[in-house]
Amino acid sequence: MREPLKTGRGRGTPCCSKVGLKTGQWTSEEDDLLASYVRREGEGKWRTMPKRAGLLRCGKSCRLRWMNYLRPSVKRGQIAPDEEDLILRLHRLLGNRWSLIAGRIPGRTDNEIKNYWNTHLSKKLLKQGIDPRTHMPLLNPTCSNQTASAAPSARQEAVAVKEEDTPQQVMSKDIGDDDLDVNFSDDMLSGFLDSLVVDVDVFLRQDLTNINPTETLVSSLPPFEHDEFWEQVVHPSAITLDVNGDVDDHFGRHSDSQI
DNA sequence: AATTGCCCCAACCGCGTTCCG
DNA sequence: ACGGAACGCGGTTGGGGCAAT
């Protein structure tokens, strides 16, 4: 039987199970210690860093705090509608690969996106009659209730998926295209994503100008039907994005519009 | 003003992957 | 090639804030 945490979010004993290590909410003093240490010594070596930084925390906790909160590049505040739209699109493409999704949205962390998805977007999709997991319409309105109550846990599902399918196969199923015969690799997928070039400077200028740079990013993802989508995946280089966010997809379309 | 219930999100854990001796 | 350590990711939890009663 595990001892409950005193302050505790999460469950059970701390990962490092060392007596005397602090858990729970970070204080501003701890934040200062961590931030100044990382600025001085750089990221990495999380295991040993708490001691060297004078923190009574485990390395994991320090890493998480830095990554999700203290890092200078972390953008605080409300998720903009355009960012939301981008998250939806990327989730349809990538599934619950939060870190990959976060990697395409400057300033947002995987944890933040995951939280936003679980608290806002999945509910929003359900309301619209869309299965948040597959992005396909729910066949039976009662399915949503069944999904909530009788569905296996996410971890069970994840295990089941892992045992049966490659991510690409899962995506193929999600898209619902039985005839799809595309065996693209993670590299290709990554290449496709990389082709959606984002100028981070544009984002950093967000506060200085009144434009919403995310709009630029979103408009880099032209609306697609399933067939077009797969064409784009298979031919990642087929999409280019100019500085203004206009899209020339090499399929004879030029777009600067939203969905 | 007090209580209750709900929602959000920071922080936790377990596990898989990568690194390194 | 192997095993342990370190790291990174995704799922889950529950404290705290806020709205409703």
Automatic annotation (TrEMBL):
<feature type="domain" description="Myb-like">
    <location>
        <begin position="71"/>
        <end position="121"/>
    </location>
</feature>
<dbReference type="GO" id="GO:0005634">
    <property type="term" value="C:nucleus"/>
</dbReference>
<dbReference type="Pfam" id="PF00249">
    <property type="entry name" value="Myb_DNA-binding"/>
</dbReference>
<dbReference type="InterPro" id="IPR017930">
    <property type="entry name" value="Myb_dom"/>
</dbReference>
<protein>
    <submittedName>
        <fullName>Myb domain protein 5</fullName>
    </submittedName>
</protein>
<dbReference type="GO" id="GO:0030154">
    <property type="term" value="P:cell differentiation"/>
</dbReference>
<feature type="domain" description="Myb-like">
    <location>
        <begin position="18"/>
        <end position="70"/>
    </location>
</feature>
<dbReference type="InterPro" id="IPR001005">
    <property type="entry name" value="SANT/Myb"/>
</dbReference>
<keyword id="KW-0804">Transcription</keyword>
<keyword id="KW-0677">Repeat</keyword>
<feature type="domain" description="HTH myb-type">
    <location>
        <begin position="71"/>
        <end position="125"/>
    </location>
</feature>
<dbReference type="InterPro" id="IPR015495">
    <property type="entry name" value="Myb_TF_plants"/>
</dbReference>
<dbReference type="GO" id="GO:0000976">
    <property type="term" value="F:transcription cis-regulatory region binding"/>
</dbReference>
<feature type="domain" description="HTH myb-type">
    <location>
        <begin position="18"/>
        <end position="70"/>
    </location>
</feature>
<dbReference type="GO" id="GO:0006355">
    <property type="term" value="P:regulation of DNA-templated transcription"/>
</dbReference>
<keyword id="KW-0238">DNA-binding</keyword>
<keyword id="KW-0539">Nucleus</keyword>
<dbReference type="InterPro" id="IPR009057">
    <property type="entry name" value="Homeodomain-like_sf"/>
</dbReference>
<keyword id="KW-0805">Transcription regulation</keyword>
